[in-house]
Amino acid sequence: MSPRALEKVYYSIREVSEITGVEAHVLRFWEKEFSMLRPRRGRSGNRTYKDRDIEIIKKIRHLLWDQKFTIQGASEQLRIGKAGDGEEQVTQPALPFAERNDDLAKELRQTLVEIRDLMAGNTPS
Predict the structure, then answer these.
(1) 26, 55, 108 from 70: Cα distances, Å
(2) Domains of the chain, residue spans
């Protein structure tokens, strides 16, 4: 028999957890957050994962844990990767607002300080 013939078609959530290093409760949560992760259910209601599901989980894990994307950002990256030519298109995570728009953040802070001073009866600096 060839090694391919010995591979499983479906995996249980416990097996997927061991393969990917992601705990079962996290896998169940990710199902709710990522529309592309939808393992089938057996007659008894148990989740059955295919190789495709495991690959998606590995990509999600990489985006969230290694690349530090938010759930929304990781979801967008997975959609972009699907829309592309099949190659993984991972960009750097979006910077926080203050770093991305440093001048705008400084101006906003100054305006808020002036408002605070006006409300306190002080003159703006």
Answers:
(1) 15, 19, 25
(2) 3-93, 95-125
> Residue 16 carries which side chain, given as an amino acid letter?
V
The rounded Cα 109 to chain-centroid distance in angstroms is 31
The tokens describing 37, both together, are 């992760």
pLDDT digits (tens, 9 = 90+) for 65-108: 998 999 998 998 888 875 433 444 445 555 555 455 667 777 88
**How far, in Å, CA of 125 to CA of 118, rounded?**
10
CATH for the 3-93 domain, from 3.40.30.120, 3.40.190.10, 2.60.120.330, 1.10.1660.10: 1.10.1660.10
Q: What is the pTM of this model?
A: 0.60
Report the C-alpha gap between 5 and 12 in whole angstroms.
Answer: 18
Q: Please, which pLDDT band fits residue 8 given cuts at 50, 70 and 90? A: confident
Contact 87, 94 (CB under 8 A): no
